[in-house]
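Batch job 17 of 40 flagged for manual review because the log was empty.
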Amino acid sequence: MERADVAIIGAGAAGLSLADHLAPTPHGSPLTVTLIDAPPGPLRPPRRTWCFWESATGRYDEAVTASWRTLRVHGRDGRAVQDSLGPLRYKMIRSDDFEALIDRRLAHRPGFTRRDGTVEAVEGAADGARVLLREPGGALRTVSARWVFDSRPLDSLPRARTTLLQHFRGWFLRTPEPAFDTRAVELMDFRTPQPERGLAFCYMLPTSSRTALVEYTRFSASLLADEEYDQALRSYTRQVLGLRDIEIEATEDGVIPMTDARFARQVGDSVFRIGTAGGATRPSTGYTFSTIQRQARATAQALLAGRRPVPPRPHSRRSLAMDAVLLHGLDSGRIDGAAFFTRLFSRVPMERLLGFLDGDTTLLQDIGIGLRGPTGPLLRSAVALPAVPLRAAPGRRPRPLQENHADPA
């Protein structure tokens, strides 16, 4: 039996971030840490892209692919809203680069161990918990830990009044000639056909004048056929962007749960959930990376101080209540998603809006932002929401749940 103070299950953004925050100096941490990752294969999530905003310099800048100071939104009528982020930067990280950075930081840290294997069970014990691990060669290993943090995706989502899926496909494009404006991110471009309920948009991250990640994103209760995503991307790149000669260097797909369900952060006396499994994903947007960093930092501080390390609540009750109203409005068709977001971005400065999405605004500021949206549909959705029964979310998860860029509002 292997013994550690802390066992972390899953080496995605949440697991790697917590491990990194627990080893802040070259001398390591006074705690022993075992990080358990799934072996190469279907249980290990595919490569993915994370985007977030923060000040000009940040903890993970070595892994940042690109960053931008300006965001742009296009309405259905083609009119653009563009604004500077002030002191903030919108940053893009590829998961492979993030993992490589954390591996370098932890490679020689005392007390840190990394294991590959499939977790078969997590059991409570008198002195903490035990993780039963099937190693790639078939041997069974037991890791005994005082505290266990589990970031594995849930098999099914908790009951909720509203559960939408943010599902997307992205093409990493290269063009023979300069075609992209590297100064701004196309955060939401609604110049694409809209569904009756929910919304659809394209999203573009220009990494150079000839390369970009272009994604088709949809908020709805069900997924599309694979060909429908490709057709939407072909239509957007040709008819909207005017690109005729492109090379698709890579693709990425994802499904992000957008739900007003409440996620349990503690599932045993010594076992906690982190990341998306612990509710870190913002219900109305799908953004997760920044919340993971706040959770990891606070959890690590509690561990290092000898306190009970319950991960902090990822979002305020006020933020979750507002998100629940928006999700219900989109799902019921009361709110025209494309018009709502276009109006919001045209009336609220980008920097203020990003602060709102991070839960870093006051009640009065939140009310001011809400009044710049369609107040009638929002109020009707708020009145109708309490009468909506809690329902089981769809149990089928056809693609790995992951955080990518999501929608910023």
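Reviewer: the log was empty due to a logging misconfiguration, but the result itself is present. Residues 396-409 have pLDDT under 50 and may be disordered. Unflagging and moving on to job 18.
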